[in-house]
C-alpha cells in the first residue's frame, strides 16, 4: 500500500463516528452463565482483545489470579509493581492498545502510582486493576488497605471503586473506551475481594454512551480553512509536532501535508519518529536540548502550526518570548481542548483527532495550488540550513581513546540500519538518544517525556518486546537510572525477552552533575556513585549476558555481539563523567538563548 493510500484508509476510518463506545465481542458460551466476578473480569479482558497482562499477585487479588490459571491470557510476572506499569506502558506506546496491569491492594497498588502518573503525563492508555480489601472492611484500616482511588485521582484519566459484581462488565468496557479514546490516559479500577468472589449471571456490556464524556473527534472545517489562509501567505512557516501525532497514528497525514506545504518540521522529544529524520524538511528536535537551528527556526518563523503538542515548558522556555514573530498566526490542533492556549495563546484553535484534522488539511489543500511554497519558502529553508551549518551539534566520537556518546549512537544506528525500537531512561543518555539516533518511524522511541521517570527504560523495553518480534529492542540507560528497576532483568530472562541494554556509565547522575557544573559553582553534591555494582556480573547473576567495553576500537564489535545474542544482554559502556548535553537552554530563558559548552 502506498503512503497516500495508507493515509486515505486511516482518514476514512477516522471519519466514522467514534464518540460512543461499541460493545466488545464476547464468548457466546459465557453469556448467561453464573460466573464469579473474577471470571467476569477475565471474560471482559478477552472481549476487549487483551492478549497480555503484566502483574504481581497478592492476597486481595487472588480470586482473579486463580481464574487466570485457566485463562488463555498471557500473564507476565514482574519483579515490582512499578515495573508492571512501565511494561504495560511500553506495550501500549508501541501497539497503540491499552496496556493492562493486575496488582494487589495496599503497597501493590501504591507501587503503581509513578507509572500511572507517567502514563497520564504522556497520554498513554492503561487499564490498571487493583485488588482491594472486602467492601465490609473498607475504611477500617484493614491489612493492606489503601485508598488507591483517592491516591490516584489527580493522575488518572478516570478511576472507580466497584462495589457490585453486576457492574463489572460495564465498568471494564468503559475503562477501555475511556483509556483509548480522546486524549488517551490511564484508568484504574479498584476491585474489592468480595466483588471478585461474588456470583452473578454474566451479561456483557451493551452499547454505551458515557454521560459527560464525548471527546471531539472531527475538526472544524472553518477553522482549518482559516489556518490554511495563514499558511498560504506565510514566508517562514514551521510545523511544530508533538507526541499526539504518534498516538493518533497520523504520521502519514503529517508527511503528506508537510510535503504539500514544503514547510520545515520540528518535533518535540515525544514527537521524534513521526516525521523521518532523514527527510529534507526535517529540522529535528526543538527546546531545551534541541538543535540551534530548530530553536532559531521557531523563534523566527512567521506562522507556527502546532500539531498535537502542548507547548511544554521544556519546549518553550520563557513563554513570553516564544515564537514572537508568529504571534497572531499561531495555529494549534489538539484532541484535548484544555491544552489549547493553556501555555501559549493560539490564534486558530482546532479541537479534534489529529489524524482527522490533518486529513481535512490535506483534502482542502488539494484545492489550493498556491499553498505549495517551494519558491516562497526557499529562502526560509536556506536560512535554517545556514543556522545548522553555523552551529551543528558538535559532538566528537572519541577523546584520548575513550568512547563518547556519539560513537555509540553512530555505530548502533549503522548496525540496526536505524530500525530499532529504542527505550530510554531519563537523563543525559535520553537527550543524547534524541539528538543522535535519527528516528525514521513512529512509535520507535519509548521514553518518559512529561514526568521524566528514571527507571522506565528497561521495563518499557520488555513490554515493547511482547509487541515487536522482528525489530531489535534496545534500552539506553545510565548507571543511575538502570538501578531503579534493574530487577526486571530477571523478568526478561524468565520470559526469554531478547532486550538489549546499553548502560552509558559515567559514574554519576550525569544531568544533575551538568547542572551543578554550570549553575551551582561546581559544587557536586550527592551525584557521585563510589559503590556501583559490576553491571556485567550483575546481569550474569540474573541469567542474562553481561558485557563491558571502554575502548573506542572495541565498541563496534561489542555492539554487534550484543545484537547477535539471542537472549537479554547488558552492555556496560564507560564514558567520561565530564561529557555534557548541548545545546542547552537554561531554565526560564528564551529558546534562542542557548549555551553551547
Structure described in brief:
With 597 residues, the protein is of the alpha/beta class. The chain has 3 domains: 20-201, 3-Layer(aba) Sandwich (Rossmann fold); 221-390, TPP-binding domain (Rossmann fold); 398-574, Thiamin diphosphate (ThDP)-binding fold, Pyr/PP domains (Rossmann fold), CATH 3.40.50.970.
Plain-language structure description:
The chain is of the alpha/beta class. It folds into 3 domains: 182 residues, Thiamin diphosphate (ThDP)-binding fold, Pyr/PP domains (Rossmann fold, 3-Layer(aba) Sandwich), CATH 3.40.50; 170 residues, Rossmann fold (3-Layer(aba) Sandwich); 177 residues, Thiamin diphosphate (ThDP)-binding fold, Pyr/PP domains (Rossmann fold, 3-Layer(aba) Sandwich), CATH 3.40.50. It has 23 helices and 22 strands. A 6-stranded parallel sheet has the order 3-2-4-5-7-6, with helices on both faces. Helix 17 runs parallel beside helix 23. The N terminus is likely disordered.
Layout of secondary structure:
Layout: H1 3-15, E1 34-36, H2 37-47, E2 52-56, H3 62-68, E3 74-77, H4 81-95, E4 99-103, H5 107-110, H6 113-122, E5 126-132, H7 148-152, E6 158-161, H8 168-180, E7 186-192, H9 193-197, E8 199-201, H10 221-233, E9 237-241, H11 244-247, H12 251-261, E10 265-267, E11 282-285, H13 292-300, E12 303-307, H14 313-316, E13 330-334, E14 348-351, H15 354-365, H16 378-390, E15 398-399, E16 402-403, H17 405-416, E17 421-424, H18 428-436, E18 445-446, H19 457-465, E19 473-478, H20 489-494, E20 500-505, H21 510-519, H22 535-542, E21 545-549, H23 552-564, E22 569-574
Amino acid at each position: 500500500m502506498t503512503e497516500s493510500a495508507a493515509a486515505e484508509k486511516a482518514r476514512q476510518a477516522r471519519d466514522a463516528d467514534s464518540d460512543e463506545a461499541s460493545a466488545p465481542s464476547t464468548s457466546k458460551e459465557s453469556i448467561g452463565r453464573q460466573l464469579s466476578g473474577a471470571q467476569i473480569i477475565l471474560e471482559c479482558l478477552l472481549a476487549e482483545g487483551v492478549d497480555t497482562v503484566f502483574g504481581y499477585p497478592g492476597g486481595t487479588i487472588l480470586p482473579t489470579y486463580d481464574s487466570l490459571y485457566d485463562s488463555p491470557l498471557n500473564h507476565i510476572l514482574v519483579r515490582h509493581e512499578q515495573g508492571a506499569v512501565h511494561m504495560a506502558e511500553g506495550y501500549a506506546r508501541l501497539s497503540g492498545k491499552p496496556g493492562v496491569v493486575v496488582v494487589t491492594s495496599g503497597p501493590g497498588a501504591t507501587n503503581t502510582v509513578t507509572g500511572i502518573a507517567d502514563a497520564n503525563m504522556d497520554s498513554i492508555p492503561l487499564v490498571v486493576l487493583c485488588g482491594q480489601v472486602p467492601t465490609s472492611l473498607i475504611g477500617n484500616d484493614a491489612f493492606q488497605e489503601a485508598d488507591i482511588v483517592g491516591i490516584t485521582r489527580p493522575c488518572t484519566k478516570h478511576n472507580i471503586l466497584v462495589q457490585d459484581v453486576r457492574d463489572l462488565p460495564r465498568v471494564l468496557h468503559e475503562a477501555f473506551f475511556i483509556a483509548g479514546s480522546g486524549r488517551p490516559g490511564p484508568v484504574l479500577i479498584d476491585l474489592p475481594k468480595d466483588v471478585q468472589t461474588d456470583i452473578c449471571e454474566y451479561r456483557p456490556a451493551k452499547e454505551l454512551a458515557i454521560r459527560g464524556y464525548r471527546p471531539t473527534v472531527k475538526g472544524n472545517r472553518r477553522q482549518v480553512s482559516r489556518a490554511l489562509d495563514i499558511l498560504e501567505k506565510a514566508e517562514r512557516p514551521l510545523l511544530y509536532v508533538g507526541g499526539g501525532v504518534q498516538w493518533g497514528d497520523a504520521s502519514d497525514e503529517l508527511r503528506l501535508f508537510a510535503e504539500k506545504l514544503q514547510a520545515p518540521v520540528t518535533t518535540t522529544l515525544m514527537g521524534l519518529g513521526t516525521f523521518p529524520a532523514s527527510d529534507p524538511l526535517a529540522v529535528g528536535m526543538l527546546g531545551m536540548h534541541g538543535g540551534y537551528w530548530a530553536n532559531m527556526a521557531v523563534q523566527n518563523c512567521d506562522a507556527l502550526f502546532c500539531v498535537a503538542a502542548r507547548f511544554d515548558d521544556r519546549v518553550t522556555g520563557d513563554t513570553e518570548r516564544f515564537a514572537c514573530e508568529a504571534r497572531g498566526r499561531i495555529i494549534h490542533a489538539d484532541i484535548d481542548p484544555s491544552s489549547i492556549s493553556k501555555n501559549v495563546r493560539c490564534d486558530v484553535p482546532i479541537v479534534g483527532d489529529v489524524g482527522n484534522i490533518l486529513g481535512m488539511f490535506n483534502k482542502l489543500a488539494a484545492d489550493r495550488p498556491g499553498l505549495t511554497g517551494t519558491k516562497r519558502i526557499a529562502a526560509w529553508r536556506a536560512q535554517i540550513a545556514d543556522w545548522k551549518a553555523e552551529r551543528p551539534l558538535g559532538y566528537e566520537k572519541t577523546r584520548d581513546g575513550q568512547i563518547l556518546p556519539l560513537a555509540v549512537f553512530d555505530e548502533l544506528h549503522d548496525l540496526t540500519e536505524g530500525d530499532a525500537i529504542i527505550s530510554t531512561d531519563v537523563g543525559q543518555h535520553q537527550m543524547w538518544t534524541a539528538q543522535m539516533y535519527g528516528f525514521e518511524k513512529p512509535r520507535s522511541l519509548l521514553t518518559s517525556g512529561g514526568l521524566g521517570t528514571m527507571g522506565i527504560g528497561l521495563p518499557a523495553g520488555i513490554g515493547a518486546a511482547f509487541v515487536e518480534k522482528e525489530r531489535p529492542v534496545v534500552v539506553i540507560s545510565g548507571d543511575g537510572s538502570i538501578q531503579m528497576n534493574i530487577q526486571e532483568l530477571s523478568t526478561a530472562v524468565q520470559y526469554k525477552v531478547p532486550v538489549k541494554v546499553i548502560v552509558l556509565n559515567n559514574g554519576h547522575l550525569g544531568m544533575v552533575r551538568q547542572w551543578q557544573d554550570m549553575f551551582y559553582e561546581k559544587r557536586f553534591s550527592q551525584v557521585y556513585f563510589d559503590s556501583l555494582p559490576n553491571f556485567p556480573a550483575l546481569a550474569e547473576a540474573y541469567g542474562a549476558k553481561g558485557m563491558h567495553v571502554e575502548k573506542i576500537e572495541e565498541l563496534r564489535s561489542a555492539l554487534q555481539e550484543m545484537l547477535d545474542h539471542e537472549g537479554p544482554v547488558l552492555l556496560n559502556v564507560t564514558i567520561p563523567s565530564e561529557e555534557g548535553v548541548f545545546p542547552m537552554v537554561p531554565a526560564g530563558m528564551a529558546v534562542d538563548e542557548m549555551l553551547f559548552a
